Amino acid sequence: MAQQILIDPVTRIEGHAKITIQLDDAGKVSDARFHVAEFRGFEKFCEGRPLWEMPGITARICGICPVSHLLASAKAGDKILAVTIPPAANKLRRLMNLGQIIQSHALSFFHLSGPDLMLGMDSDPAGRNIFGLIAADPDFARRGIRLRQFGQEIIELLGGKKIHPAWSVPGGVRAGLAREGREHIRSRLPEAFETAQLALRRFKTIFDQFHEEAISFGDFPSLFMALVSAEGNWEHYDGNLRFVNSDGEVVADQVDPVFYQQYIGEVVQPDSYLKSPYYKPLGPTQGIYRVGPLARLNVCTHMGVPLADLELKEYRYRFHGTATSSFLYHYARLIEILAALELIERMIDDPDLTSDHLRAVAGINRLDGVGVSEAPRGTLFHHYQVDKDGLIRWVNLIIATGQNNLAMNRTVAQIAGHYIHGPRIPEGVLNRIEAGIRAFDPCLSCSTHAVGFMPLHVQLVAADGTIQDEIWRD
Amino acid sequence: MPDSRTASILVIGYGNTLRRDDALGCMIADLVGCWQRPGVRSMSLAQLTPELAAELAAAETAVFVDARKCSPSSEPTVHVEPLSPRGEDWASLVHALTPSVLLGLCKAAFGQCPGAWQVSVPGSDFSFGEGLSDLAGRAMGQALGIIETLLARAGSPEPVPAPECPDSGSPQAPPASQDSEHEHAHHPG
Q: What's this model's pTM, rounded to 2 decimal places?
C-alpha cells in the first residue's frame, strides 16, 4: 500500500516549507518533494516602479540576505545605465558582500546547524538548539555570535544599518567607509580569524562522526555552477559563470551572465512556489545543478588567498577533488568565511575605501540589464527590462535556493531512502531529513518571499488517507 | 559606528518602517539617537537578531520599543513592562527573536544581561505605506517622555519604578525573574 510522509513545516530554516515523502507498496521511498507553500511575488509587483527604487525594494525581499539583493539589483542598474562604476564603489560593494557572507555563514553554521553538528543528530530535541550549544560549549557559541556580529557590523558601517540598507544604487554607492569604521573592522579581524579557524578545526574533528550523513545527505553526481574570476578563481561579486560536473570537468566556462538564459532554464512545479532552474543544454531531468558554497569550491581553480587555499587543498584531498555530498556545504561555508576574512584584511587599508568618488551618473542608456553576484547561498540573478523613462516593465529573479531546489528534493529522497524502511518513522530520522535541507541553508524569503515561525508536524499517511504514524513538535 | 563598548544604555526600536504604525519603534529610536545622550546608543532595526546578544552583554540597561496593535478608538496608552531573560520556550532558532529570548540568549552566552524594559506603543494602522495614524502620533510623544525618564533613572544606584504612564497601570520596579512577553504586531522583512 503506497504511503506518504509529510514534514510540515521544516524548522530552523528561513521561511515556511514542508516535505512529503512517498512510500511505495513495499514501504520503500519512491519520491520526495520539498514544497514551498507561501508566496510574495516581487517579480510581479516591481513592474511599473522606477529603476532607481529597485535596490531598495528588492533588498526588502529578505531580512537575512538584503545585501545580496541590493548588490545584484544595483549591478542590473549599472548595466541599464551602461556605466563603469568608480573603483571605490566596486571595492566598497565587495567589502559589504564579504560582510554579508561572514554573517550569513556564521548564522547557518553556529546557530542553525551547530546544534545538530555539535550536539548530535540524535541528541534530545529539547536541548538541540543554541541554548543547548551554549550549555555544552559556551566559548564556541559566544564566538559564533560575535562572528556574526562582525559581519553585520561591516554592513552597518557601510550602509548605515544592518538590515535593508539602501546604500548600493545604480552607478555606485551612496557613502564610503569612515576612518573610524576602518579601524573598527581592523581591530576585530584577529578574533574573527581565530573563530573561523577554530570552527574549521572543530568541524574536521567531528566530521568522522557523521559518516552516515556524509554519504546520505545529498551525495550524488550533479553539475555545479558559480561565478569565477578571469583566472578561474573563487569570486563573490563579479566575474563570469562556470559549470563543472562531478568529475571536475568544466562543462561551460567564462559565460557572460548576460547570456544566462542560454544556459539556465526554469520549470515551475504545481505544488511549490519555488522555481526549479536547470542547466538548459541537458534539460530538466539531467540538468540538475547546485550553487552556493559547495559549488563555489568545486568550481574555482583556487581561492586566491593563502589560508583558504591551504584549506581548499586539504578539502580536495579529503574528498578526492570534487565534493559531491551536500553535507559538505557546512565545511565549504567555513572555508569561505576564512577566505572572506583574508580578503577583508587584504583590502582594509586600500585608500579607495575612504574615497568620495563613489557614483557614476547617467540616464537610461539600455532597456535591458542583468546583475549577478554570489549571495551566501549561491548565484543570484536580477534581470530587468525598463522603458525609456526607466520604469520597470519586466523582472526575472533567479535565487540560489531555487537553483538548489531539484538537489534538495533529491537530498530528501536519499536521506529518507537511507533511513526509512517500513511504515514507521525511526527516531532521529526526521531531524536528519530537516538537517539535509538545512545543509543548503535555504532562504525561502528570498526564493518565494515568505517568512514564518513554525512547529513541526509529521504524518505518515496511507494511500487511503489513514494516518499510520504522526509526530508533533511544538 | 556600532560601538557597544561605550554604550551603557541601549534603546532598541524595531519594526517594519513600510508598515505605517509598525515604524513606531524605529522612529522613536531615531529620535532618541538625536538626543545624543552620553552613554546612550539607539538602534533602529527591522527585527531582533541573535548577534544583538553581544551588544546587550556590554550594556547595563536596555529599552526595547515596539508597536502594539490597538483599535483606532483606543486611548494612546503606552505600556512599560520589565523584561526578564527566558530561553525555556526556545523551540527552534529563527532569525527574528523576542526581547526576552534575546535577553535569555545574552545571559546564557555571556553570563549577564542588562536590566530591560519593553515600551509598547499603540498603533492602529499596520497596512503598507509610511506615516503614522492619529493614535500612533499621539502615543509617540508620550513614549518619548517615558523613555527620557527611563534613561534618566537608569544610572540611579537604587532600583526605581518606571515612570508613571497614564492609564497603563503597569510599571513597577523590574523584578529579576518576572517574565513578560508581548504579542506585537510585527512585520519583518
A: 0.85
